Amino acid sequence: MVDGVTLPRPRASGAAVPRSRVSGAAAPRSRAPGAAAPRLTDIAAQADVSEATVSRVLNGKPGVSAATRTRVVAALDVLGYERPVRLRRRSAGLVGLVVPELTNPIFPAFAQVIEQVLAGHGYTPVLCCQQPGGASEDELVEQLEESGVDGIVFLSGLHADTAADQRRYAELAARRVPFVLVNGFNEQVSAPFVSPDDHMAAGMAVRHLAELGHARIGLAVGPVRYVPSRRKTEGFLAAAGPDAERYVRHTLFSVEGGHAAAAELLEAGCTGIVCGSDMMALGAIRAVRERGLDVPGDVSVVGYDDSPLIPFTDPPLTTVRQPVQAMASAAVGALLEEIRGNPVPSTEYVFRPELVVRGSTARARG
Predict the structure, then answer these.
(1) Where is this chain compositionally biased, Low complexity type (predicted)?
(2) Where are the domains of the chain?
(3) CB contact burial 92-110 (16+ within 10 A = b; e otherwise)
(4) What does CATH list as the number for 40-87?
(5) Least confident of 54-68, 110-124, 259-273, 313-327
(6) What is the CA 36 to chain-centroid distance, rounded?
(7) Rounded to 5 degrees, what are φ and ψ at 138?
(8) Average pLDDT of the segment spanning 81-86
(9) Residue 8 pLDDT more than 70?
């Protein structure tokens, strides 16, 4: 206790400590057992305020501006201390996030941004993942409704599957549960959609390989019943020509799926392969190497997504980047408007992807 104020207990030493948003200085590392705990002077120095100001904030006394109070609270966070109960932000409500899986790193990337944006608005995210043999999307939605969520974000859910019954979303809307859908526009569903321009993405990849001199380019993409697969195929054929349909292989959005599709495309003589996901691209690279060929010396491979670890593959993967930050922010923004009672147009908001050229593509031999 200092100046009548009980300092919060420090967090566990294994917790990540962010960089200070106040001074820009690096946060101190966790202290060894037995080291002296920070005093008011430490918090005051971190927040660049007086010790008396820190005392007033921690004791909940008036006379401190909102900006200064925020700096003191940020200093507590940076120094690794739990906030006093009176300074903890109360949740504005719960928002469900339904994702198909977490093994593909693009889904955790989306989930992280969505959770961050929700937390910035005071909402607590509830992550639900569909595991093989586990709860279905409908069962997860039922559990979320029982938990009293204010709204739901669906990421690459059944709305993207043209073979699925879309009446489930109309029923959800009839129960007055706000929701927004990411990836996979379906005109049967009346709700806000947020999507990347898959048609443009495939065209970007094809044109990149054509400019490198590849004359026979193949496409490895997911099942045809999924909207993103159809759009990528349409974009591929628009850029490569209708005759290129014989170089399209529909398989699974996975490493194994990319491996199987690439094996057939290599048999067909393709020297450039466009993949529907980065995971498929990694499988394609494996198929190329199993034949004793080199990437990109003999075969160029382009992925799709650009999740955080992709720049560190061998070789670094050329890919089409989904604008995750912009899409996630737009999805949360639309959902919060719906939650506040401000209807958002039931339309699709399409975001432009970006071609990121790295080491898995090169000029064709000869």
Answers:
(1) 18-38
(2) 40-87, 93-196+325-351, 198-322
(3) ebbbbbbbbeeebbbbbbb
(4) 1.10.260.40
(5) 54-68
(6) 40
(7) -65, -40
(8) 72
(9) no
Domain 93-196+325-351 adopts which CATH fold?
A: Rossmann fold (3.40.50)
Report which residue type is found at 186: N
Q: What is the pLDDT of residues 51-73, one digit of tens each?
A: 889 888 888 788 888 888 878 88
Q: What is the mean pLDDT of the chain?
A: 87
Asked whether this chain's domains 93-196+325-351 and 198-322 adopt the same fold, the reply is: yes
pLDDT in tens, 24-49: 333 333 444 444 455 788 888 888 99
Residue with tokens 């001199």: 213
Characterize 44-57 residue by residue with b for buried, 16 or more Cβ atoms within 10 angstroms of its Cβ, and e for exposed.
bbbbebebebbbbb
Q: Which helix (H) or strand (E) holds 55?
A: helix 51-58
Distance CA 100, CA 9 (A): 38
Higher-confidence position of 25 and 131: 131
Q: How many angstroms separate the CA atoms of 308 and 95, rounded?
A: 25
Architecture of the domain delimited by 198-322: 3-Layer(aba) Sandwich (3.40)
Among residues 324, 313, 331, which one has the least CA distance to residue 275?
Answer: 313
Residue reference for tokens 């559990």: 143
| Residue recorded with tokens 């039931």 | 346
